[in-house]
Amino acid sequence: MRLFPFCDRPRLWGVAVSHYQVEGSDPCDWTDWEASGRTKGEPCGEAVESWARYEGDAALARQAGSNAFRFSVSWSRVEPRRGEFDLAALERYRRFVEELVRLGLEPAVTLFHYTHPRWFHAETPWTSPRSVDVFKRFASRVAEALAPHARLWTILNEPLVFILGGFLDGQIPPGISRGDEAGSALVNLLTAHREAAWAIRERQPSAAIGVAHNMMGFRPERAGWFLDRWISARARDLYNMGLIEAFTTGRWSFTLPPLTRFRGRVEGLENTLDVLGINYYSRLHLQCPGRERLLSDFRYRDVSGRGLTDNGWEIAPEELPSILSDAAQSGKPLVVTENGIADSQDKFRDAFLRDHFAAISSASIGRARVHGYFHWSLLDNYEWLDGFGPKFGLFSVDRKTMERHPRPSVETFRSLGEAFVSAEPAPA
Ligand code: IFM
């Protein structure tokens, strides 16, 4: 029987990391992307050496008051050549998961967090249905290795961000900008999710399966302008609600204005989710028609006077209750799978944590039941297109010595966690 929230741990409070962003020395498609000059800042290289230091990182998460730890498995490490699995890599992840359990941390395993083995795009790209089988095979091998101890699985991290960035904007691998390919890649990605969900459940019938869906606030740049209001509503429908529709009905149909139509169906997709994960960071202000882009410009603005984060994002906790209420339309238990701030001086993180915590608490009084929160991130990590510039960590990392140092806001994280975990469990 699938059971979420878990009755022995009804509320999860933890940190999130992803393999490529912390592990180091993991040659994959993103490494080639860096080498071709498509990213800013330095290459990922050793990242923050978590591959060698995972157990220490888990201990830090525990000291910071976590009872859960979200991480992802590197497909390129586990299957460096097509069909050849690296048993030592799987064993390394198994040992890590065992350590999490030993420390009292619920392992939350993510299977896809943006990167691919080098062989993937040439041989079995997402535009081909063959991608589904190879992903399923990878998921099955990981489930076999980790299932005894891991019961919370996020199969895909931010699938829409990946499709928009990888197949429409061409900003991330595979670097394509074609609406038709984006549509077929989305079908295969969601079919791969379904197949992986079935494969995990076969090996661990009590698994709780989720997706980490990036949701944003969208506001009209000029509240009095119809077109700005119209484009903001379309952005919400497409970006926030489109994927929820797909996972709740197995079908989706939305138009990326003016002409890109996404329409698809994956039989059985609607029965694959036990929990909906939400990655929430910020809000965008949209203007239509745009001056820089044909359809609309979007930008972050410091509306509340709180200040912008180091990477220029608006801090907008007031948006979170309505995001959670939109997410609650899925009818699934909710977990915030990512939320955090780039703030090297730790100027804003304390208030950021408190304000988002208050927003989650207020949303939980209504229809949205939030059963878990994962802070992005435990450590300063590699940030995809921006290298090591933005500092998201509760712990800073000295990349010369790789020493980890707590930022003062760790204490806020700990005390909010105590309150969250000891509160009455939200009804399922
Ligand atoms: O670092 C990323 C993560 O990989 C996906 N969600 C957003 C984070 C902050 O940019």
Describe the structure.
- The structure is a single chain.
- By secondary structure, the protein is α/β, with parallel strands linked by helices.
- It has 13 helices and 13 strands.
- It has helices at 19-22, 29-35, 50-63, 75-78, 87-103, 120-123, 130-146, 159-168, 179-203, 226-249, 320-328, 349-365, 410-422, and strands at 12-16, 68-72, 106-112, 152-157, 208-220, 251-256, 260-265, 275-287, 297-299, 334-338, 370-376, 395-398, 403-406.
- The strands form 3 sheets. Strands 1-2-3-4-5-8-10-11 form an 8-stranded parallel β-barrel, surrounded by 8 helices.
- β12 and β13 (403-406) form a beta hairpin.
- α5 (87-103) crosses α7 (130-146) and α12 packs parallel to α13.
- The radius of gyration is 20 Å and the shape is globular.
- The two termini are 15 Å apart.
- The model has no long low-confidence stretch (mean pLDDT 95).
- The structure holds 5-hydroxymethyl-3,4-dihydroxypiperidine.
- Residues 18, 21, 158, 279, 338, 376, 383 line the site of 5-hydroxymethyl-3,4-dihydroxypiperidine (IFM).
- N/C terminus separation: 15 Å
Mean pLDDT across all residues, rounded?
95
List the secondary-structure elements in sequence, H or E.
EHHHEHHEHHEHHEHEEEEHEHEEEH
The helix fraction, in percent, is 25-40%
Task: Report the radius of gyration as a whole number of Å.
Answer: 20 Å
Biggest sheet architecture? 8 strands, parallel, barrel
**Number of strand segments:** 13
Ligand catalogue = 5-hydroxymethyl-3,4-dihydroxypiperidine
Q: How much of the sequence is in beta strands?
A: 15-25%
- Tally of helical runs: 13
Strand order of the largest sheet: 1-2-3-4-5-8-10-11
